[in-house]
User: Fold this.
Amino acid sequence: MHIDPWILAFSFITVAGTIGMGFWSARRSRSAADFFVAGRSVSVGWNASAISGEYLSAASFMGVAGMVMSSGYDALWYPVCYACGYLFLLLFIAGPLRRFGAYTIPDFAEGRYDSPGFRKIAVVFVLFIGFFYTMPQMKGAGTTLHYIFPGLPYWAGVVLVGAVITLNVALGGMKGITLVQAFQYWAKMFAISLPVFVLMSVYGGYGKQLEVQGQSPPAAIVETNRLALPAKAPADNAWLNPFGPLTTKAAKAAAPRLAQPSSVIAGTNTVADPAAQKAWLGEHERGYALLYTYSLIIALICGTAGLPHILVRFYTNPDGVAAKRTTMWVMILIGIFYVFPPVFGALGRNWMPALYSGIGVNGTDGLVLKLPTVLREKYGTLGSILSGITCAGAFAAFMSTFSGLLVSMTGALAHDVYGRILRPSSTPADRMRMFKYSAVLIGLVSVLLGTMVENFEINFMVGQAFAIAAASYFPLLFMSVWWRGMTVKGAATGMLIGGLSAMGAISLTSWTTFISTQAAKFKLLEKAEPAWFVAIKAYSLTDFWAEHPLLRILGEQPAIWAVPLAIGLMVLVSKLTRTAVPADIRMKMLVLHAPEQLGLKQEYIRDHEAGH
Amino acid sequence: MALEPCGKVGFHRRVTKPEPSDPNWIHSETFLRTLQQRQLRLSLGCAMAFLLVVLGLPLANYFAPEFMAARVGGFTLSWLILGVLFFPFVWCIAWIFIRRSIALEKAEVADVNSRAASKPSSN
Assistant:
């Protein structure tokens, strides 16, 4: 098939630039500290751009736009909470954590509780959350490469991008990444905003795109203001207003069964009559949707404050005040960015509604890449150039986030598992070598996982990684910073049970989604379902969720119960084991909270060294 | 200089700041308690302002759907609040917090130093 030279050129320049900068800075990064926390000398401006660059992943760049197009208003919570989650980080965690001074979250976990055993548990979640977050980045990579090279299968794109970034990280470490990330923030900002401005100047502003929703216009207005929607698209009112397709999915799936439960169970009636369904939905739908919305908000806000690959960057600030200033700038940088993807979503609904009919790499997740090509008809190559720019932005998005995740997961493996647990006597040179081997290992696993998620929405997957972070690291950090009564047993119990139960609940509902999207794919391609699929389909749990919509919502969005569960367990178990509170807890709390000018950290280090 | 982790707490860099001015006061229970309480009060105040809006908006959507669907420049009111106005609102909270928290830290350091000055023998 035809390969657009403009799109190819822009994408190639981004990839070549990223790799080039990685190599360039690799020569400048020598010591172990350079590798892990960039020598702790990164300025506020650089660091804020780098954190933003790393944070704005494929989910933000491609996924949010796609999800706003597919689900409408409810999907707006994602960009808003992705940005505002930083406020919680700023209010409760950023300053104290920086003052305490450690390389990674597992360092903090060990230092706060004087427990090397706790480090092992904490490391596990760096990897869990990291892999959950990696999968959507890989989907972004597969989708983008499939778009640039239409004949290329999805998995090949995943393998290619995975290999390039793994090489880059293995050579450059974190210092290289800081530079590349900072550059990539500005690349992404440019790539998302320029096409939006051009498209709005041609098709009308943000408000106008929304204004046409919900009007019942004659055909002529449809021609000039929007294109006709395919049957699969949600109706205008459901799309534009709260409690639309995303949050009411569970209730809608349950209505046919629960509207007339007795006749359905008796087998006399498999589909309830429409009037009864409508009445049942009228009674239950909005309540369930409200619950879904709240749980999503909690997951995203608390999850941001518990993302290990973002938190590690706060240690690259020179002091606690700089850490706070950095967070402020990150909020401004990413806040401005997040205004744009929903505009893409609204434009896409009006001008590229054909995407509603596609699935996997041809569905709404490709919106940001494809939408500028609608300009081709009127303006020729301008459409291709803008599409090339958004492709370059998409590369910047999944490459920077995947690099950050890889550094963080590799750091956990090389620094914590190898350097602290397996071989505490290893030399810095050993650890540097191990960093490279670990990067390759984690890159391989990420690619493997990435090939399996073609039919999941990018943004949805990232939301789930947030929910796991919200139920594990957020309670750990929040409680460890503010409550001196926490014991290591309390912290470990809460984090493990909260995090694992959230992950379990999410996996159960994702399993059902996997089966149903896979079945839809076979149907669309008019292929017979293979034997392995028929065998696992029997265990899809679809019927169970249809009978228990409330459980489905709590499984898909577990934060509303998992975060209180984790905190509750932390308090309960800590109270039961209160004799195990670290002996020097007052000093630890002082180091966390007292202004750095008082010089308490130095004193604390001296005390500790004297004691060991 | 290669900076390596030292000690089991994972500190990596020696801080060359002045010694604590008044060890007795800094290490007293009262000092820590006031310090934490002041900081927590500030953080909670800002968090409340934020939570009121972020948790109130779904409620407004639930109880006053017609009002939230009113059109403002093409947007629905609810879309305008969530998709555009929310970001500057949060920046304001963050800005106020940072100013106050830096001022708080300065005040604490000044307080400790003034106590040290009034009790020179304790150092």
Helices of chain B lie at 23-26, 29-63, 65-68, 77-118. Confidence is low (pLDDT under 50) at residues 1-20 of chain B. Strands of chain B lie at 71-72, 75-76.
